[in-house]
Write a structure and sequence with these properties.
The chain is of the alpha+beta class and 88 residues long. The chain is 16% helix and 25% strand. The termini are far apart.
């Protein structure tokens, strides 16, 4: 169920904070409520704001990819792929 209060502006601010976690980041969301786009400044920086989020971990676990699939039909077509990211 959608909730226009998620994420809150305070949560979004913390997710973007270089003081809390320095360096680049990509933040993923599923089915962002249209009202959230109106009230939270900078929310357009989300790497993805709809679809299912699938993590694909390489054999051995050294790296992974984030795969976004279309959740509007049963085809689950891949719409975006991010990475590879190094596992920590």
């Amino acid at each position: 169920m959608w909730d226009s209060g998620h994420p809150t502006a305070r949560v979004w601010s913390r997710l973007q904070s270089q003081r809390i976690s320095p360096g680049p980041r990509e933040v993923f969301a599923t089915d962002l409520h249209p009202g959230t786009r109106v009230v939270i400044s900078g929310i357009e920086k989300l790497a993805s704001d709809r679809g299912h989020i699938v993590l694909r971990v390489s054999p051995g676990g050294g790296e992974y990819r984030v795969v976004i699939v279309d959740d509007s039909s049963e085809s689950h077509r891949v719409t975006k792929v991010f990475g590879p990211y190094q596992s920590r």
